[in-house]
Design brief:
With about 500 residues, this protein is of the alpha+beta class. The chain has 11 helices and 24 strands. Strands 2, 4, 5, 7, 8, 9, 10, 11, 12, 13 and 14 form an 11-stranded mixed sheet that branches.
């Protein structure tokens, strides 16, 4: 038995050495012409080569040459210094990478801001229709012809999975324009446009999303193994399945193929639109998503990267087949992610389509993510990024008076259609909730229900598919909330 093990190990070592001696020079897929390089951070270039092969790179922005040597297994990485971008400076640069057998020239490279956009189908949802699963974003017929943003660059990672980590993906950096944006994420595109127009510097959007994907599929196996609860729930039950069984909720398969190949890429932050495939999982989702994020931050080695996510949009889950407020509890689990440093949440309660899990109003979603980034990451304090946020309440006779945080009120409280705020409900000691009337009075909301003489608890938009009308004058919807801690 020992002899067989030693023989196998020796064969693996020899095989690796032969491979590293014979393999041709390869760049990691993320490094291409037409890309945006993250400003003011080291730009890593990496790939595979022959063992001990000398490699160098030089960027036109400073003319300095950086050199390295491939390892005995053929892996190599070097890093170029990148200057700070200047608003309005759209100069195209080039990088020359030299190796033993030749050189590669990368052209039309811009210096700006790079964001990783990930999640499942609502992040993946393209501007153009993709029958039969979605109809395209709202107004795509007029939006796509106007997408002349050559200083925004798009990098769409093809859906794929792998049982092992790889540095290669199927993707190409493209210049944003009417001919390319149709196949790209609507949410990511609208986010990029608003950031570009505010900063006036190039924006790179890296899309790595997979329809139907679970959070655990985007989480590294090592991260799941490191926590007993996560390991038991998300990893152990899949270990006995053959690798040929590809499931969108199988742990780590998308991380290996769609995130790991990107971890040397310098980025500004992460956008995340995912949750439908974990919607029954409210008890563990906060822990799982936090672990995924911490794993990504550790992998990218760029500190506490901003992580801005989308709270789930109203959907009825075929109405009778789903408990009345299970999705509301899940949204609450998502909101708990805000306790993690450098996070933000975009609210979408007013743009849902209860009968369609892929609502078309992606422009508002992308723009709200951009508002969070502009305020929290880029320091534009004049950009309002949050809707009315519950602060406290007082019970007066048979009414509940609700107060909201000062910064979330913005210029005042309103409804988008001029009617009273909808989707408030009240309960008494019997824990039975009844639909309530709500009235805006200055910067507060007064809520009451004739069925409840002595209210003790209040909920707002706390069921599966409440398309809301309550917002502030910055047109940002109120955050769902409840004042009770009841489980049902």
């Amino acid at each position: 038995m020992k002899f067989k093990m030693l023989y196998s190990l020796l064969f693996f070592v020899l095989q690796t050495q032969v491979y590293s001696q014979e393999q041709t020079f390869k760049l990691a897929t993320a490094i291409q012409s037409n890309m945006v390089v993250q400003q003011n951070k080291g730009f890593k270039i990496w790939g595979l080569a022959k063992a001990n092969e000398p490699i160098s790179a030089q960027a036109s922005w400073d003319g300095k040459t950086v050199s390295t040597t491939a390892s005995s297994s053929g892996e190599w990485l070097l890093q170029l210094a990148v200057p700070k971008a200047k608003p309005g400076d759209f100069k195209a640069h080039h990088i020359i990478i030299k190796h033993a057998k030749g050189e590669i020239k990368l052209d039309n490279i811009l210096i700006g801001e790079v964001w990783l956009c990930s999640g499942q189908s609502n992040m993946e949802m393209t501007m153009l229709p993709a029958p039969p699963w979605h109809k395209g974003v709202m107004d795509y017929e007029t939006e796509i012809p106007e997408a002349h943003y050559s200083k925004i660059r798009l990098f769409k990672v093809k859906r794929d999975t792998s049982s092992t980590k790889t540095i290669f993906v199927d993707a190409k950096w493209q210049v944003c324009g009417p001919e390319t944006v149709g196949a790209f994420s609507g949410v990511a595109y609208y986010f990029g446009v608003d950031v570009f127009e505010k900063l006036n510097i190039p924006v790179g959007l890296v899309l790595s999303a997979y329809g139907g994907a679970s959070c655990q599929a985007f989480t590294a196996r090592e991260v799941l193994e490191a926590d007993a609860q996560l390991k038991k729930k998300y990893l152990d039950k899949y270990l006995t399945q053959p690798d040929s069984v590809i499931l969108t909720n199988k742990p780590s398969l998308m991380y290996n193929k769609m995130i790991y190949p990107l971890i040397n890429l310098s980025i500004k932050g992460i956008l995340w639109y995912q949750g439908e495939s974990n919607s029954w999982d409210r008890a563990m989702y906060t822990k799982l998503c936090t672990a995924m994020l911490q794993g990504w931050r550790s992998d990218f080695k760029q500190g506490d990267l901003p992580f801005y996510f989308v709270q789930m949009t109203p959907f009825n889950w075929n109405k009778k087949s789903y408990p009345l407020n299970e999705y509301a509890f899940f949204r609450e689990a998502q909101e708990a992610m805000l306790k993690v440093k450098n996070t933000g949440m975009a609210i979408t309660m007013d743009v849902g389509e209860p009968d369609d899990i892929h609502p078309r109003r992606k422009k508002e979603v992308g723009q709200r993510l951009a508002k969070i980034a502009l305020h929290k990451t880029y320091g534009f304090k004049d950009v309002q990024y949050q809707g009315p946020q519950y602060q406290s309440h007082k019970i007066k006779d048979n009414k509940i008076v609700v107060s909201f945080t000062k910064e979330s009120i913005s210029k005042g409280l309103i409804t988008k259609n001029g009617f009273s705020p909808n989707h408030f409900s009240i309960a008494g000691e019997d824990k039975q909730f009844y639909p309530a009337e709500a009235r805006i009075q200055g910067d507060k909301v007064v809520v009451f229900a004739t069925e409840v003489k002595h209210p003790v608890a209040l909920r707002y938009a706390f069921h599966n598919y409440p398309v809301t009308n309550f917002q502030n004058k910055s047109n940002l919807p109120a955050v769902p909330f409840r004042t009770d801690n009841w489980d049902k």
